Structures are given as structure tokens and as C-alpha cells.
């Protein structure tokens, strides 16, 4: 594994794009596998544009790389089975299986002693009434699989509850004072490095800003980092993981984990010598991790949809790093880029 030259990345979005740039700085090549549009392909050594059912394409992709990683966790199991028979997948399959499904994820977190929102399995619409009786209102119904940016979620208030249309979990509403996340990395040698927790603000279910330092007491940030380290160690994880947490008066509650680089870790590009993308590449390539120390205060802001119109001004702003994903025409709710403002 120490002779990794080419990294295969499943998924060709902005995360794959920024991973590919980071890999290139270390003299490595990336091969992107993406069924749809692939902005990552613009900056990669090779791109395969094929479906996850195309066995010949999957096989050729796997044989052309030394290790396989992903920027997108909802890759079909059949594709992963085939790929894994040819090359190692990092982070491992257990991390993927756990985080692909909100029910499995919460069960795993509770099993390793971490607090989550109270939850109930809601396999069908007929199970919803019983679940609401157990969890109470307000609560949030979320599809078990495939949700992102708040998609597949329904608030359960006082009125009749809507159905998501797919097997779901009902989560008790957490009355949090803040949302934070930890971007943690674990190397092939078991070494763990975490970036400073960031304070996240969401609007309409989509992350808008991440601010570091997060402004919370040291006891809270230390606890957050310890929780993240416990999760990656329990999974024998290799790579970067995003751990989203709610801050409550009764302590930290894990919202969800993402087995990949994470939007709330984009600030590391302007705040650290080794950012989350390079850290992930180092881990999956079997290289030593960077230390993750933060040397600047940063506010990361996502550029969503028409925010793209602000780019000319942002390009003129001091202490501002502009990242654009090369996605073409903006659509409402679509992440088009982000900016990192160095604030101190
Ligand atoms: P993303 O892709 O941004 O991570 P997602 O679609 O996976 O989002 P969640 O992280 O589960 O969705 O939820 C999105 C946001 O909705 C959370 O960051 C939080 O602001 C709010 N939220 C989710 N679950 C709860 C809860 N149980 N109680 C209170 N707020 C919640
Ligand atoms: Mg989330």
C-alpha cells in the first residue's frame, strides 16, 4: 500500500474535485468514477462516466487504480462488492454500511456509548402513529437512506404527519443551542488527528456557514474531539470523517456521521497547513497524517444558487479565498462554490 500512485474516487462532484487537486499536490493521480456530470473530471487524470451497474466499467476502473475511496456514500452494494474484489476500499465497508442508513448509524453510535436523538424505526407509513406515540412531538421523520441537504425529511408538528414515501426513522427534535462538527482523520497506522470543531449554521436544511474557532468552552470542544476519535477507532477507519454534533445543556448529541470529507471542513483550506482533502488523500494512500493544527480564524460560507452573482465582489474582498466548482448554470439550492474568509 505504500506504493499508491493512483487513487480511484467514486463520485465526481466538488468533493472529488478538491480531493483530486490535493492528490495532485502530492504527486498522485486520481481516476473519477461518476455516472452523471463530473466537475471533478476537469482536474483528474482520468474519468469513467458509467453507471454503477456497468460491471465491465467498474472492473476496468478498479484495475486502473491502487486504492479506491469515495466522496459519496450511497454507492450500491453490488458495485462495492465487485470493486472490493479487485482493490481495497478506504474507508472500509463497515463505515459505509453504518453511515448509509440512519437507523444502523444511530444504533451503532448508541452501542459505542454515544448519545443520539431518541429515535424509532418507521418501516412503513402504518408504523408512523406508533412511532409518534413513543418519540413524541415535535419530531423529524427522515428517510433511512439517501438523504442530504435536508432532503427526505419531514417535520412532525401538531397536525397530521406527512409520510416520506420510504422506510424512515423518526427522531425526537433536539433543542440544541448550537451545531458543531469535527473533521477527524485516522491513518492506516491507526494515528488519529482532528481539526478544531467548527460552528455550523444551516438554513432550509443546507449548511450556510462554518466558523472557527467555534466559540464554545474548551470542555465542549475537547469532548467533541474525543467523541469523533472514538467513532473512527471503533470502525477501524482509514480516511477523513465528518461528525455532526448538537450542543445541548445535557451534553453533546451526535446528529450524523459522514464517511468522507465534509462541507463543514472546507475552512481547513484557509486555516491549516494540511487541509481535510490532503489529510484524506494521505490516509487512504497510506502516508503519514498532517497534524491538523489551525493557524487562522476562518468563516466558510457556501455559495448556493444565485449567490454566484456575488463572485465579482468576493474576488475583490480582502483575506478571501474563492472556490468555484465548475458546475455550470446555478440552480436554487445547488452548491456552486464556497468562500473562506480569514478573520484573524
Ligand atoms: P446534510 O447533508 O447537510 O448533513 P442531511 O440531509 O443529512 O444534511 P441532517 O444532518 O440529518 O440532514 O439534518 C439537517 C439539519 O436539520 C441539521 O443540521 C439540523 O439543523 C436539523 N436537524 C436534523 N435533525 C434534527 C433533530 N433531531 N433535532 C433538531 N434539528 C435537527
Ligand atoms: Mg447533516
Description:
The longest helix is centred in the middle third of the chain and has 17 residues, at 218-234. The chain has 3 domains: 6-89, 3-Layer(aba) Sandwich (Rossmann fold), CATH 3.40.50; 118-172, ATP-grasp fold, A domain (Dna Ligase, domain 1, 2-Layer Sandwich); 178-342, ATP-grasp fold, B domain (D-amino Acid Aminotransferase, Chain A, domain 1, 2-Layer Sandwich). The radius of gyration is 20 Å and the shape is globular. It has 344 residues and is an alpha+beta fold. The strands form 3 sheets. Strands 9, 10, 11, 12, 13, 14, 15, 16 and 17 form a 9-stranded antiparallel sheet that branches. The protein has helices spanning 14-25, 55-63, 77-84, 93-100, 102-111, 128-135, 218-234, 268-271, 276-284, 311-316; strands spanning 6-10, 29-33, 46-48, 67-70, 119-122, 139-143, 153-156, 168-172, 178-186, 192-194, 198-203, 206-212, 239-248, 251-258, 298-304, 320-324, 335-342. It has 10 helices and 17 strands. Bound molecules: adenosine-5'-triphosphate (ATP) and magnesium ion. The site of adenosine-5'-triphosphate has 18 residues, from strand 6 and strand 14.
